[in-house]
Design goal:
Number of strands of chain B: 12
CATH class of the largest domain in chain B: Alpha Beta
Largest sheet of chain A: 7 strands, mixed
Number of domains of chain A: 2
Strand order of the largest sheet of chain A: 1-7-6-5-4-2-3
Order of helices and strands of chain B: HHHHHEHEHEHEHEEEEEHEHEEHH
Strand order of the largest sheet of chain B: 1-7-6-5-4-2-3
Largest sheet of chain B: 7 strands, mixed
CATH architecture of the largest domain in chain A: 3-Layer(aba) Sandwich
Number of helices of chain A: 14
Helix content of chain A: 25-40%
Structural class of chain A: alpha/beta
CATH superfamily of the largest domain in chain B: Type I PLP-dependent aspartate aminotransferase-like (Major domain)
Largest interface: A-B, 211 and 203 residues
Distance between the termini of chain B: 61 Å
Number of domains of chain B: 3
CATH class of the largest domain in chain A: Alpha Beta
Radius of gyration of chain B: 27 Å
CATH topology of the largest domain in chain A: Aspartate Aminotransferase, domain 2
Oligomer: heterodimer
Chain lengths: 458, 523
């Protein structure tokens, strides 16, 4: 077997030193009635690299890759062009095959990268401190709610109706098992993000208000206004961002009153990957809150010779030290995805991020105008970044499937995200990025028009 | 005489240097050991390594009142500078690709490059999690095929694939247990965890809303069955056990423990971090386990990536399956695979799910890698892998136990990791010193000071992908370091001497944390 270096001669010599007659004898502590004498039946034996590659390629070919179709999906996962340099760096064995940097003298590469990543995220979010990443946006969002409860000693989290429903669902699932309570109403299809309704529900029990920016329908809530009301009630404002490129065009949440900013970093460097692994981002505006923050933190220090170096720090918050009193049970971050994000962000820089955001927004404006001309299609949003909602007079789930059959991945049906209907099933979320061409937009418009016309005939 | 070549060059014989000499350089670099400034000291806001259309400043926009007006403060680098920055950083890392990485409990085995290639196939890497199901049948097929292997290898009933890492998997398993107890209106408040457990176990139990109590270990490093039985009762929701345990020993009484817990109305959670030792040799399902997470980044060799991403699918017993989280995959009798989400859970009879643990489907990029690894090994290769992992660990143990204390060396063969301690070191010499000495010898240190139940613990897990020659070199280094520690060699206190950095001041880092780069004020 190509991954196993020991030869039978090695095994024999090693068993001799151990004083055991066979490898099976090393498992003497496993009760005989439960020990498997041979390979489990019904499973295939080892296969060559070529055979495995062939099998996996067959499975891969059963999927319609985004690059092979006009593609307009978003809703928390975005397809951007990832420069070849990003993948080259993440495939370097020194990054790929390293562990958590617990021995800092021989892990300065990972540590310095994490320190730079933390700084990039903090600045992108307009915050003071960011951690070294978390599993994904949805789990980071829940961790932020827990942190807010610790800081305010209150347990009611008010989630805006514009928050991605999967994020809400994760929070509701987790809250069920904790003293926490989630206050949430399903969204209505209107251009207004519902800021006033949200503000009206803040009370003295509220630990935090969670707002998605831009929200799941592409709308852009008025953060300063929500922040003011939130803080007046003694609660904390958590802002969720799932499209970091948007922050090249929109003001950073930390500069608009957010206390905790969390999000999904997948859009930069990581790729779609059918939903994971992704990259949870987590940042705070008030440095005094750092000891209540979950997740790994990398900090600057000096070595014994006085040279600058970096270490994981403040680990007294973490599970391996604090055990059941830890701020979180999480013990990994999303290191390789953080590296991909950081390399992509480094290649872009501020100028590139702004240009990328501008190009996304330009294409989204073009698409919104073109699609609005399709009979039976209305654009919900007055304002948006690269994602907006179309409202049709028919259910969009079957429409999306039908367009997929014709080779157009038209967007995300709100009926998929909100299965319980109530008008939302007629919403279609459409996303444009720099990977779309103007021809793609025309293809979508024509396909949509044809499908709707056929629908009328049916 | 050649009149053209006036260079003065001729082949020479080198002069040996004074090895006590310091030879400082102007740059601070030392040949291949290159110092690298921070990105924020290198880049500028105007530099960009990507070609993008210049924005039209006159273009109208629909961003509304939140449009950005202030600067962000993100420096950029050109592409060549970017490649060099990260390449230089990478060379300050130790990695499996460079040498033995024997971190106990972390299973740092070789990461095959086939897995990387497979994960990048466009049908896996470039599909959106919310695409219509008919356009992602192959991706669901990967999930299903991997799920089938995990179920068969563990002898369990079903598997929740979505947890993002080991600790997330623990949480998933504990939430299944809690949901199952709630479904029968059984209010239990306590979870029992052995003292030797990973810190994530008690943290997870607390996160799932339980009180945590320790289970004592016996003198042989295993759970004290009688003490455990005495503590069981109607308030105990679950017992969390790691098997093989963190002392590197197989819990011989596992089935008896499970039977006792079940008889008392509780559930058994098994921490599967150490599954690499037993895959293909014993199935947790046969030992009465109700839930166990599998670290794909350990057992099935998806890369650790400097601290993640991980992936922690949870295999479940029949009583717990109905409570597994969404999304779930259901395999029909005709072989088709269906994605069970909130909207169609009824259709597939998965109506008791405790909910959703994450957006989307879990770590697809890890599933493809793990499946490629499993298929490469096959059922025979996986069994050989666990055998070789255990063989390598026992070889280390028996090659070192005459010079280093092995706290449970008399308790029989170890599993996939060898536990040693600092017993017998000279006054003032520590496990940390030995670890830092290993760095100078060109090895990554073992896990230090864990498990907590052994003073100065050194937990060494070589894995099956190390050759005998590598192990022999490591043994020679460890034997030398053991002698130096016992002799009180002061030069170990300042090791490492040959790494990119000397020991880092961790107290300084924590006292006044600097967690982001601050521009130095001019002047």
């Amino acid at each position: 077997m190509r991954y196993l270096p020991l030869t039978d001669a090695d095994r024999g010599a090693m068993l001799e030193r151990i004083g055991a007659p066979s490898i099976d004898a090393l498992f003497a502590d496993v009760p005989a009635e439960h020990y498997l004498d041979g390979p489990i039946e019904g499973l295939p034996a080892h296969a060559s690299e070529m055979a495995v590659e062939r099998h996996m390629r067959q499975l891969s070919k059963q999927n319609l890759a985004a690059a092979d179709a006009p593609f307009f999906l978003g809703a928390g996962a975005y397809r951007h062009h990832v420069p070849a340099t990003v993948d080259h760096v993440t495939q370097r064995g020194e990054f790929l095959t390293a562990y958590t940097p617990y021995q800092p003298e021989i892990a300065q590469g990972t540590l310095q990268m994490l320190f730079e990543f933390q700084t990039q995220v903090a600045r992108l979010y307009g915050c003071a401190i960011a951690n070294a990443s978390m599993y994904d946006g949805s789990t980071a969002c829940w961790e932020a709610i827990v942190m807010a409860a610790r800081l305010t000693k209150r347990h009611k989290a008010l989630m805006s109706s514009g928050v991605h429903p999967h994020y809400v669902s994760v929070a509701q699932t987790m809250a069920h098992f904790t003293p926490g309570h989630i206050d949430y109403d399903l969204p209505v299809l209107c251009s207004n993000a519902g800021d006033d309704k949200l503000i009206a529900r803040i009370d003295e029990e509220t630990s935090c208000v969670v707002v998605h920016y831009p929200d799941v329908m592409g709308r852009i809530p008025d953060l300063p206004k929500i922040a003011e009301a939130t803080h007046a009630a003694g609660a904390l404002l958590i802002v969720v961002n799932t499209e970091p490129v948007a922050l090249g065009a929109l003001e950073a949440p930390g500069k608009l009153g957010a206390d905790i900013v969390v999000g999904e970093g997948q859009a930069l460097g990581v790729g779609l990957q059918f939903g994971g692994p992704y990259l949870g981002l987590f940042a705070i505006t008030n440095p005094k809150h750092v000891r209540q923050m979950p997740g790994r933190l990398c900090g600057e220090t000096v070595d014994a010779d006085g040279k600058r170096g970096f270490v994981l720090t403040l680990s007294t918050r973490e599970q391996h030290i604090r055990r059941e009193k830890a701020t979180s049970n999480i013990c990994t971050n999303s290191g390789l995805c953080a590296l991909a994000f950081s390399v992509h962000m480094t290649l872009l820089g501020e100028k590139g991020l702004a240009a990328l955001a501008a190009e996304n927004h330009r294409l989204a404006c073009l698409a919104a105008d073109r699609l609005a001309q399709v009979p039976g299609v209305n654009v919900l949003n007055d304002v948006f970044f690269n994602e907006f909602t179309l409202v049709l007079d028919t259910e969009t789930r079957p429409l999306v499937r039908e367009l997929a059959d014709k080779g157009v991945l038209a967007g995300v049906s709100l009926g998929r995200l909100f299965p319980d209907g109530d008008g939302r099933e007629n919403g279609l979320l459409v996303t444009l990025t720099e990977t779309n061409t103007e021809e793609d937009i025309e293809t979508l418009a024509v396909a949509l028009q044809e499908a709707l016309a056929e629908g009328d005939l049916a | 005489m050649n009149q053209i070549n006036q260079s003065g060059w001729k082949p020479g014989t080198p002069i040996a240097a004074d090895h006590g000499g310091d030879y400082p350089t102007v740059t601070g670099n030392k040949a291949l050991m290159l110092e690298e400034p921070l990105l924020f000291e290198l880049g500028t806001a105007e530099t960009c390594g990507v070609d993008l259309p210049a924005p039209d400043p006159k273009a109208s926009n629909r961003l509304g009142p939140m449009a950005r007006e202030s600067d962000i403060g993100l420096p950029g680098l050109s592409e060549p500078e970017t490649v060099r920055h990260y390449t230089r950083l990478s060379r300050q890392n130790y990695a499996i690709d460079l040498g033995l990485f024997p971190l106990g409990s972390c299973t740092m085995k070789h990461n095959p490059r086939l897995n990387e290639k497979v994960a990048r196939m466009p049908g896996f890497a470039d599909v959106h999690p919310l695409q219509p199901v008919d356009t992602v049948r192959g991706a669901l097929g990967v999930i299903n095929e991997l799920a089938h292997w995990l179920i068969e290898l563990t002898g369990m009933h079903g598997v929740a694939m979505s947890p993002k890492a080991g600790a997330h998997g623990e949480l998933c398993g504990m939430l299944c247990i809690r949901a199952a107890l709630e479904a029968r209106r059984d209010v239990r408040q306590v979870v029992l965890v052995p003292e030797s457990a990973h810190g994530t176990n008690p943290a997870t139990a607390a996160f799932a809303g339980y009180e945590v109590e320790d289970i004592p270990a016996g003198a042989d490093g295993r759970v004290d069955l009688q003490a455990l039985k005495a503590r069981l009762g109607p308030d105990v929701a679950a017992v969390m056990i790691t098997n093989p345990n963190t002392c590197g020993l197989f819990e011989r009484d596992m089935k008896a423990i499970s039977d006792a817990v079940h008889a008392a109305g509780g559930f058994v959670y098994c921490d599967g971090a150490n599954f690499n030792a037993i895959m293909g040799r014993v199935r947790p399902g046969d030992l009465g386990v109700d839930a166990m997470h599998i670290n794909l980044h350990k057992t099935f060799s998806t890369p650790h990536g400097g601290g993640g991403p991980g992936s922690g699918p949870v295999v479940l017993s029949e009583p717990l399956c109905p409570y597994g989280p969404l999304p779930f995959t259901a395999r029909m009798e005709d072989g088709t695979v269906h994605l069970v989400e909130e909207e169609n859970a009824d259709q597939f009879g998965h109506t008791h799910s405790f909910g959703r643990m994450t957006a989307f489907h879990g770590q697809m990029g890890m599933f493809t890698r793990a499946l490629a690894y499993i298929l490469s090994h096959g059922v025979d290769g996986l069994r050989q892998a666990s055998g070789d992992a255990v063989l390598n660990a026992n070889y280390l143990l028996r090659s070192l136990d005459d010079v280093l204390d092995a706290p449970f060396g008399d308790a029989g063969h170890c599993m996939h990791e060898a536990l040693l301690s600092d017993h017998g070191f000279a006054e003032g010499m520590t496990t940390l010193d030995v670890a830092k000495g290993l760095i100078d010898e060109g090895f990554h240190p073992m896990t230090m000071y864990f498990p907590l139940v052994v003073h100065g613990a050194m937990l060494v897990e070589p894995t099956e992908t190390e050759s005998k020659a590598t192990l022999d070199q490591f043994i020679a280094a460890m034997r030398s370091l053991a002698e130096r520690a016992k002799a009180g060699d002061e030069t170990l206190k300042t090791a490492p001497h040959h790494a990119p950095r000397a020991r880092l001041d961790e107290a300084h880092a924590a006292r006044k944390p600097v967690l982001a780069y601050q521009e130095v004020a001019n002047g």
